[in-house]
Amino acid sequence: MSKAGTGICIVSISIMLLFASSCVKPSEAPESNGEVVEESTVVVEETVTEPEVEEISTVAPEDVPDLIGTEIEEALSLIGEGKYDEAIELCNVVLLSDPDNPEAYNTRAGAYLQGGDFDTAIEDYGKAVEVDPDYFQGWFNRGVLYVSMNMVEPAIEDFDRALELDPEHADSLYRRGQAYATIGNLNRAVDDVTRAISIDPDNADYFGVRGYAFNAQGQFDLALADYNKAVELAPDSEEHLFYRGYVLLVAGRHEESIADFTGALDLEPEYAQAFIYRGLAYTKKAEREMMDSGAAELDSELVDRAIADFTLALEVEPGAVEALVNRGVAYGRRSDYAAAESDFNRALELEPGNPEIWFTMGMLKQEQGSNDAAITNYSKAIELFPQHLQSLINRGVVYQSLGQLMNAKADFDAALALDPANGMLMVLLEQVNEALAVQEM
């Protein structure tokens, strides 16, 4: 959470994780290797000229399997060209003559998927594994689609079945590891992706996802080692540079993190999250330098750079709440309270149910000495998330400053129940109890 200090405190890395909804990139699928039809690309081994439909009736029965295979290859080619309706029609032709063909259902599912009809794609993948329960690609592809739809539990079940059919399929292990990471089962995620790496040690995405899991576990050294490997294997990947920069930022290695975010932006100039986190790196660097030097204020040049980066992020994504909040915080550090409040209000228009924004607005009001407004904002944050520790502490501090000791005691008691080992809370509660004892004398 935010720390006390001169001016408005920088929104911490832990808070930013709540905001950075668009940066959950470990869950995105890498490009297809051509083995199966995936959700992002369709790779076709070769282009086959589409035969006339009427030719099917003139082919000898023993030649029908070869013709069906050609039709499916042509359907894949059509998907690659973005001709999804034509691909679907071609698959329909195949299924008329061979209604139990899992490849036709799988390919038609790919066409529906690429056309944005996820529900029908799910149905067709289901038909593929219904007609052939040992059809690996149907289980795998449906699992990938389930993950993209945030249907994690059925995705894991599909990957389980795929791995029963092919225990050494590295991408199934990787995808299941992604799914486990999504639901917070980090140990299983690490186990799966480690197995995938043992099978395919040259896949940068595998190291990236394991680095993500290690980072979520707080094992920053292991996370950094994996991201170093990912960047080594895929130096042109802005995502691996971004996530390595994030790990470096958490570790307090600000210059290195700024370099990685800059590298990511060189590769993808409209990478909003890289602008946001580089802005955070500038502000954290300014905080560190202020603490080390004993200066009374943050380096204004670094704060200006941070504001510029948050602004650039908003040019790319005008609704980026995390950029608005952190730019508002930076404005507050410059005592530009009007600009800060404007950014916070805009963020609240976009996400009125986000407790972190109300908490940050409370800090702004508290810094301005607007105690009633601060209490109102902290109370809203607590209403939305009753376990919001820092809001309880800060509201208690405001109550204490106003002499509302019973209210302060209630907040400190609630906060201490959430964090029993918090020494600062123990001191604050002791102060309030002593003041109450004096009042009773």
Short descriptors:
disordered N terminus, 3 domains, Serine Threonine Protein Phosphatase 5, Tetratricopeptide repeat, mainly alpha, elongated, 441 residues
Commentary on this structure:
By secondary structure, this protein is mainly alpha-helical. It has three domains: about 140 residues, Serine Threonine Protein Phosphatase 5, Tetratricopeptide repeat; about 140 residues, Tetratricopeptide repeat domain (Serine Threonine Protein Phosphatase 5, Tetratricopeptide repeat), CATH 1.25.40; about 90 residues, Serine Threonine Protein Phosphatase 5, Tetratricopeptide repeat (Alpha Horseshoe). The protein is about 70% helix and about 0% strand. The protein contains 22 helices and no strands. The longest helix has 22 residues. The N terminus is likely disordered.
> Helix/strand/pairing class, anyone?
mainly alpha
The succession of helices and strands, N to C, reads HHHHHHHHHHHHHHHHHHHHHH
CATH topology of the largest domain: Serine Threonine Protein Phosphatase 5, Tetratricopeptide repeat
Helix content: over 70%
Count of strand segments: 0
Which whole number gives the mean pLDDT?
Answer: 86
CATH architecture of the largest domain: Alpha Horseshoe
Secondary structure tally, helices: 22
